[in-house]
Amino acid sequence: MRCPKCGHSEDKVIDTRSVKNGTVIRRRRTCLNCAHRFTTYEEVVKANLRVTKRDGRYEDLDKHKLLSGITRACEKRPISSQQIEGMVDSIIGEVENEYEREVPSTVIGKKVMDRLEKLDEVAYVRFASVYRRFRDVNQFLSEVEGLIGRG
Question: What is the DSSP string of 89-133?
Fold first, then answer.
């Protein structure tokens, strides 16, 4: 590792810690030439997952897009931003573990629907109306009736 101050390539690791739930290693280093201290982080580089859309197109998996969709469904509901972010992180973690390169958008949508149904029924119906592309009020009503039947 090159020293950011003098460019010397030899250093000594003086402290190593695990961060971000063990997915990243933080190392404090000192340059053997100028004694400058600096920090480096190591993590496994994963290939970007691509999402296969319904129409056959591909998009990179975008955490912010998923976060904004769930946030929209949860607007004005008693759901904290920490709950939403935790949901997004767990969905992305599951998808990264289950798929290597490509994941169908339907899988992500199903995972969101499952979590929202348990968390808040109004947010679930809001998300379902976009995800399932309700064409009329009857489809919307049948989804709500299904929720009532399960409750």
Answer: HHHHHHHHHH-SSEEEHHHHHHHHHHHHHHH-HHHHHHHHHHHTT
